[in-house]
Amino acid sequence: MNIGVGLDASLRLTPDQETELSWRAARMGYTSLWTPAGAGYDFFQLCLHRWHASRAMVEQGLMTGTAVYPVEVLSPLAFATSAATASELTGGHFILGIGSGGVYRDAYQGRFGSAVPVIALMRDYLTIIKALLHGDEVDYHGKTTSLQGARVRLGGSRLPPPTPVYLAGLGPQMLRLGGELADGVSLNWCSPDQVAWSRQMVAEGAKKAGRDPSAVQMSEYIRICVDDDVQVARHAYVRAMMGYALGQTVPSERERGLGYRGHFERMGFTEDLLRLDDMRRRGASEEQLIHAFPDELALKVGYFGPAGGAFEAFQDLAQGLDTAIVRVVAARPTLESTLAVMEACRPDGEGQ
Question: Are 198 and 175 in contact (CB under 8 A)?
């Protein structure tokens, strides 16, 4: 199993700090550097910056990747050209991870006057992007997206280098689609049992397409937050988790079965989340929700607490993965808090 590290915008890193953490990650034995999409830096350029910085310790540089970039942000052609460029400049050390983002939400669907079929949208994106990254000329007319006469060439004539495309998946249909078409599947906030179930769904999709299920890589962000003050670590971790488990607003009945809310309910936490929804309807503050959030749910899919327990918890949660990614949650707004997580889970074992 490979162990990567995930650094996001919540850490508020400067370019110089990104450089430092990238070469430190390489020195600690991490094999990859990952970033989610969001407001702020351009994430293709950020991957290039991190790869270049990691070369101070590893000659070829660490693998870098986006996990994940929501498709509502870019067209398939824009994804393919950016990914091909990143892969070319890193010597093939780039993975493109895409996901449906918030397309399933009522607010997004309402923009179009009719429902956007999310699985069909992701099928169209995967099909087009993979064909473009293979250097094919694409004439494609899908249910949600079309492209005619497009091709990606670098320097006017060169084919793009091999660039794996990962699909973010939580529900059975998306996981099966990943098994059918993607090079890998990106998971998030999973218990070990949920990882095993996800593998089964991916295998079903792969077999349906005549593919070897073991050829589809499985990666996951595993949130880790460490601090000697357990309550400080808990507060930061739960605050990071609530936006996923609960959503930004109380979900509609339809939304409860979709996205992250559906994911957490499948893991058996429906009643806990409904209780927190009731608190939100009555005007509970963020602090009250954090206080009421069940530790059992929080620790089933990640870790908060003293640094000494982090790596063992991470290993338990990483069962069944090909790449387990330490997604850093900083207990305090300091570079030292970020480094503490990286040290606690460093693959070379020196932090344990």
Answer: yes
Residue 146 is which amino acid? S
3-state secondary structure of 305: strand
Task: Spell 240-267 as b/e; 16+ CB within 10 A means b.
Answer: bbbebbbbeeebeeebbebbbbbbbbeb
DSSP for 229-273 reads SHHHHHHHHHHHHHHHHT-SSPPPTTGGGSHHHHHHHHTT-HHHH
List domains and CATH numbers for the chain: 2-344 (3.20.20.30)
pLDDT per residue rounded down to tens, the chain (352 residues): 999 999 999 999 999 999 999 999 999 999 999 999 876 789 999 999 999 999 999 999 999 999 999 988 899 999 999 999 999 999 999 999 999 886 766 655 555 445 678 899 999 999 999 999 999 999 999 988 899 999 998 887 788 888 999 999 999 999 999 999 999 999 999 999 999 999 999 999 999 999 999 999 999 999 999 999 999 999 999 999 999 999 888 988 888 888 899 999 999 999 999 999 999 999 999 999 999 999 999 999 999 999 999 999 999 999 999 999 999 999 999 999 999 999 999 998 776 6
H/E stretch holding 3 reads strand 2-6
* C-beta separation of 339 from 323 below 8 A: no
What's the Cα-to-Cα distance from 102 to each of 99, 192, 237, 258, rounded to whole Å? 9, 25, 22, 10
Residues 294 and 304 sit within 8 Å (Cβ to Cβ)? no
| Per-residue tokens: 221 | 């962000």
Q: How far apart are CA 11 and CA 22, in angstroms?
A: 14
**What's the gap between Cα 216 and its chain centre?**
16
| Tokens standing for residue 73 | 């942000």
Cβ 161 vs Cβ 153: under 8 Å = no
At 331, phi and psi to the nearest 5? -70, -30
